[in-house]
């Protein structure tokens, strides 16, 4: 599975734009209160349920990892792109980051109290998303929490291909994503959908889920 052509294409695409991407997203959290609401709610929820290690899967240059670490979580980050990990390590030397695919995580069964996949599954073909969610469920302890961010589909159900500026991606209707979560070890506890900001082309969504 980790040798799929789309995985190699995504890795190479993000390696090529890592510096530009880092500059582009530098102020996204500071400028977007709705994203911060969901990230901070996730952090509070993890703390209230016993805390423990939290992984940022698809961490990119590490900005979400750093935000959640500042909120009191024990963070580590994983990304497919070696260039993204190089930048994350340079920018946040006190946090551990490593290169790796989300289809096969290094964490032990039930090791994590929380997991963030902030715009991380968007390049995964829909037919492979259940396997990714099963891997996430494996490393999360029962009752652990996962936070997902993604571009929202225009329709109330289904998945749409999206011409992302870096690589082909997929937009999920939140209800459809919640159904896939339910079939693969999770319960969607909260969903936020918002309109596109001026620098965005589509509505956005985030889902806070519980590992059942």
Automatic annotation (TrEMBL):
> Which Gene3D superfamilies does this one have?
Vaccinia Virus protein VP39
User: A Gene Ontology MF term for this entry?
Assistant: methyltransferase activity
PANTHER family per record: METHYLTRANSFERASE (PTHR42912), N6-ADENOSINE-METHYLTRANSFERASE TMT1A (PTHR42912:SF93)
Task: Report keywords, A-Z.
Answer: Methyltransferase, Transferase
Biological process terms from the Gene Ontology for this record are: methylation
Q: Which residues form the Methyltransferase domain?
A: 54-144
Looking up InterPro entries in the UniProt record yields:
Methyltransf_25 (IPR041698), Methyltransf_Superfamily (IPR050508), SAM-dependent_MTases_sf (IPR029063)
Question: Is-annotated flag, keyword Glycoprotein?
Answer: no
Q: Which CDD domains does the UniProt entry name for this protein?
A: AdoMet_MTases
What organism, scientifically named, is this protein from?
A: Nocardia tengchongensis
Q: What is this protein called?
A: Class I SAM-dependent methyltransferase
């Amino acid at each position: 599975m980790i040798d799929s052509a789309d995985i190699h294409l995504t890795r190479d695409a993000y390696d090529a734009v890592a510096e530009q991407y880092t500059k582009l997203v530098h102020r996204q959290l500071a400028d977007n209160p709705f994203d911060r609401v969901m990230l901070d709610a996730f952090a509070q929820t993890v703390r209230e349920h016993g805390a423990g290690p939290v992984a940022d899967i698809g961490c990119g240059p590490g900005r979400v990892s750093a935000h959640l670490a500042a909120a009191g979580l024990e963070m580590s980050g994983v990304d497919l792109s070696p260039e993204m990990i190089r930048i994350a390590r340079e920018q946040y030397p006190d946090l551990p980051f490593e290169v790796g695919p989300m289809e096969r995580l290094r964490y032990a069964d039930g090791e994590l109290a929380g997991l963030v996949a902030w715009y991380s599954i968007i390049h995964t073909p829909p037919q492979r998303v259940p396997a990714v969610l099963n891997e996430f469920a494996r490393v999360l302890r029962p009752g652990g929490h996962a936070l997902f961010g993604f571009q929202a589909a225009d329709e109330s159900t289904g998945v749409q291909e999206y011409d992302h500026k870096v690589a082909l991606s997929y937009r999920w209707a939140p209800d459809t994503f919640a159904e896939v979560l339910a079939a693969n070890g999770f319960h969607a506890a909260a969903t936020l959908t918002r309109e596109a900001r001026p620098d965005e082309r589509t509505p956005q969504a985030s889902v806070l889920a519980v590992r059942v």
